[in-house]
């Protein structure tokens, strides 16, 4: 039974790392859940409770960073709710349209939403670009946090 649980825990961490760059999956949450499961399997003896607590803090920061980076960049560019909603729709549409769509659909969605709101192509382009940059910054920061969490997990297992 423990072997099956360890396989599930490791798969959750691996899928979580992939989910860090795929918006459809809650990457940081999956990584933390996998680590929590691994700690629970051994009764928190191999992976101590304080380590899990530290990783929980990192997970909360990772989720907050993802949201804050996008919203702050869009707000800084003066995005309206339609621009922000367009970025969200573009992100979802990007999931189903391959890597290029995943990278550029949020930009297009934000720009289209902003254009609908103000009928100003220059402003729509600025908001779309700012939202896209926020999405990329958030993804890079999330990746850094997820790799830190994974590194702490591996170190706890090995030492």
In short:
The protein is an all-alpha fold and 159 residues long. The protein is 85% helix and 0% strand. The radius of gyration is 18 Å and the shape is elongated.
What does this structure look like?
- It is a single chain.
- The chain has one domain.
- The protein is 85% helix and 0% strand.
- Helix 1 runs antiparallel to helix 2 and helix 3 (49-76) packs antiparallel against helix 6.
- The protein has helices at 2-19, 27-41, 49-76, 81-95, 98-118, 121-158.
Give the topology, please.
Blueprint: H1 2-19, H2 27-41, H3 49-76, H4 81-95, H5 98-118, H6 121-158
Helix pairs in contact: 1-2, 2-3, 2-6, 3-6, 4-5, 5-6
**Which structural class should the secondary elements be placed in?**
mainly alpha
DSSP, total strands:
0
**Poorly predicted runs:** none
Structural shape: elongated
Name the average pLDDT. 86
User: Major beta sheet, specifics?
Assistant: none
From N to C, what is the helix and strand string? Answer: HHHHHH
- State the separation between the terminal residues, measured CA to CA: 24 Å
Helix content: over 70%
Radius of gyration: 18 Å
- How much of the sequence lies in strands comes to under 5%
Give the count of helical stretches: 6
Domains counted in the coordinates: how many? 1
